[in-house]
User: What shape does this take?
Amino acid sequence: MKSVLDQIRAAIEASDATRYRIAKDVEIPHSQMSRLMAGQSGLSLEALERLCKYLNLEIVIQPKAKNSRGKKRGS
Assistant: This one.
């Protein structure tokens, strides 16, 4: 499964807008966008939310399925 940032990078690449335009519209420095696309940096949660809104993406947070490896000892 692709990571969240891999999926966002793919959405940026698939966008009709340039990286510069996206960075400007989302109010993140173009240098940060370049580092993100190169896999050298992530984003703050606030920037990630703005970027997802711009790209019409939704991040869903849900509990992981329980498995035997995640159980605490003595449970």
